[in-house]
Amino acid sequence: MNLKKEFLLLGDSDFDKLKKLTLSIYLRKINEFLAGNQAHALKIIDQENGKEVRREDAGRRMSAYDKFLTGSSSEKNSKDDYLQVGDLLSEFANKIEEEYSQNELAEKEGLQKRGLDLEKIRSLKVDASEAEALVNEMLDYLGLGGVEKSNGWKAKVYEGRKSAGVNISKKEVSLGDSPVSVLNLVPTLMGHEVVHVCQHENKDRLSSLKILGGIGLDRMNILMEAGAMQYENDIRQKIFGFKKIPIPFYVRAMERKQMGGDYLDCVETFYSSSLKILKEKKEKGLVDESVFEKERRDLLRLAINRSKRLFRRNYSLNDRGEYLTESLATNYLEQQIVSERLKEAGLEKYLYIGGINLDILPQLIKAGFIKGDSEIKMPGEFPKKIWEDRLKSRYLIG
Length: 398
Known about the structure:
By secondary structure, the protein is mainly α. It is 60% helix and 4% strand. The model has no long low-confidence stretch (mean pLDDT 83).
């Protein structure tokens, strides 16, 4: 409350404008934190008290929190409520669905053109200890750490861990202990995860704003994931001939929910949308009957799992209200839009500074809160060099 009062008392001098920007940054982050916690708290209170809440009222309320946290389109439904999935996102999902289909069909051809054996790519794994060593080499190459530097970043394998991630407090790229596919090692572990390290280092070095160097701004995940995915796909395309396209089927399920669908409707929409591409692969002879059946079952399990996420803030899986209460996954398509637009404008270097909300980026630069952007650390071509020198020979045809 004191922050808001101070904000309202400020004038129009350059110094006051700078203070307004700083206060608005902190207020936005505080509001994001409060809204996220309040949404969870209200549902818990209703459940604990056994309170009878009309599903439509509950859905509308939770949808409002979701829009505040993740955004919405400018379009409205018949009840005059803003939609999370509007025409722009829906049209982009159509484009991505076509790209996804082409990418799936091009996988085998892309590998063959590069003299790579598809079965070897799928079956020959890289031991976790070798993956750890290669990620450490990447960090050392960038001057960010590696095993020789006690105060730098390191890659470390953890027993029982299933997936990779970046631990800021420990300055670690945490890795699982299972052997990894080379498709995961080079573009993802040496690419995607190391980009997140670069993003954290860049925001610490180049920002004079404490909140940016610390916890980051509101709605910062889109820009961070956009940068990591762009670099991962750049490496994947150069080495293997295809990309990792965001799954568009999730948005189809969201659209169905906005139209009043319940959980089973969303599962059916997700599944039928994804099955269409698998059938096309079978028709073109890219998968046999046994592979088709296995992948079909996998798609059904994915549809069941992902659709259920859309109802995490609903009071019932049978809810047919036209309110989407969980739209965070639109980030996967939105980050693609962001990276494409920044690349077209020659501003993709800002994808490598972590903790930023794209909406406020121009103001941060103008105010001098981001300095020396020519010094932004970029990950470079090292993963491709490691592939050519150390890994490629294992996966050649013959």
